[in-house]
Amino acid sequence: MVDIGIVIVNYNVRHFLVQCLESIRKSRTGDLKTEVWVVDNASVDGAIPLLKKDFPEVSLIENTENVGFSKANNQAIQQLQAKYILLLNPDTILEENTLADCFFYMENRKEAGALGVRMIDGNGIFLPESKRKIPDLWNSFCKLTYLSKIFPSSRLFSGYNLGYLPENEIADIEVLCGAFMFIRKEVLDKTGYLDERFFMYGEDIDLSYRILKAGYKIVYFPKSTIIHFKGESTKKASLQYVRTFYGAMSLYVNKHYAGKRSDLFRWFILFAIQMRAVLSLVGKFFSVLVRMLVDGLTIAGLLYLIKKYWAYFYFGDPDYYQGTSIGVNIILYTTLWVMSLWFFGRYDKNKKRYRLGYAVLTGLILILVVYALEPLEFRTSRALILLGSLGTLLYVLLSEFLMSTFQKPKKPSLSTVIVAPKTEAEKIKMMMGFDTKETGDVYVINPGEDTGDPYYTNHIRNLDKTVSQLKADQLIFSSAGLPIRDIMEYMTKLTKKVDYKIAGDESLGIIGKKIPGKNLYSLDIHFPLEDGFWRRTKMITDMMISGLFILFLPIVFVLNVGRIQAIRNIFLVFIQKKTWIGYGGDITDYRFLPDIPKGVIPFPMAKRAIRFYDGYFKDKNLEYAKSYNPWSDLALVFSNITNLHGK
Questions:
Q1: How many domains does the chain have?
Q2: Which domain holds residue 299?
Q3: Which residues have CB under 8 Å from 37's CB, separation 6+?
């Protein structure tokens, strides 16, 4: 029997796993016997061959699918004959004395069943989840409503993370953090292992609760500190995280609470998920709404000043517009300009500034149309409209200049995948300066025969899965490793959008733009439907076509041989549940393309085909996404006006 059995579950965090295992190697354990098991949950980051080569002392379990945190830990625990089990996250680094200190403390405190240590993040900041309490309705409410953050040391409000307990004093707590769980094996044999119904999150709370019920203490032991690079595998700000976390909490409540108490807690959790969803949505659009409001107030202010000075200098009467409807017109003109700015992308994250001139011009045209339709007594001076256009244009240009000048660009955390033979990959790394920390993670994909070389992260046959799971930002191909035709095919099959580059000779200039100073070419595979402007154009085109069909509903009904689905489709497109022209075929024929609603008329079927060759639907969908324009949609809808009943 060994003294300490360490279990680490790995999922696509190879770089962190190596650091973690190195810290275990450097541990001062004296005569203590340790054994390390790594359970890999079908990672695609090349961890397995690396472990086999550089860490032969580690026992390895290779899962062919992601079985979840609980089940993966249990797989290794069942194999271990140890006095203590340490469940450890791969994104942690131990101090040299951590293992020995924890072992001897537990040896001297027999009533303790489990122990957790003080944790800090990668910036040295204390992680409050190092010491926690069993969640109940009140402390969960305080955590969700941020009361625990507002009053971090309050016994009343900070119960969830026991903020009132001193950070550097040993104390009895109620919940271990899953990143570091030092547990007596005899306790696990008595309570049972991790509950495998918890795929991720909540399993640590559940196990801690069972340890307490079995009569053991759980200790917070700050005499040892570890680094936990919190959140490397999960984006904890995302709504998906919230749903997963509170889903685990719901499972926990159903398991350990009964009766009305359980119903109340479950209702609260459901409410929490919905509230976080609403807050996420509000947070997403709040900045846009604020900017639209600022633009509206500024443009209205400009129009008011122009009105005032025009009345004074041109008409010689400051009260010239008194008693007219000019106030209503100012609000109307302002609204039209702000909506034009929205449509042309002023509030988009990746805006194209040259379009903002079109936005002001479009607003002017709409205002002139309104002016022409207004009764004479409601019309304002045309000079006010023209001077307002000039003022609005100058304001937009000035504000964009100031934003681009003073707004600090966020430094992207790049993750790069290189598809190249080893020698070419090394040249590309050197060429791109990937030897510095600022360049982010770099993974190399083997384009040839699978040699089992740990240098490679994965193989070309798993490219799509690898790029998606490793959240790659850019993908670099070497023409020495793959023919250009194959490279182009892989590029169109990827489900994740990345920046493409190709390394090779000068002949690549025909398909890409050369990056100055490097033998590297950038390929801009751009789909108009990724652009907010064109997505809004498609939406408005759809709604206008539907509006026209509603005006002539009886005729459309007859042309579609009285099929009710045609009428339903008109209204479904109008509310954007569908689009008139969309993708066709199986989902694999378009999942790599920009998301749009389901099409009433699939583009591959909108035109008569001479023959359907292998890959026809994929090619046609790609053609539509790359060459979208509203006029072609309009033409295709009316050429298929007798086929509006598609499901």
A1: 4
A2: 287-406
A3: 5, 6, 7, 8, 58, 59, 60, 61, 76, 79, 80
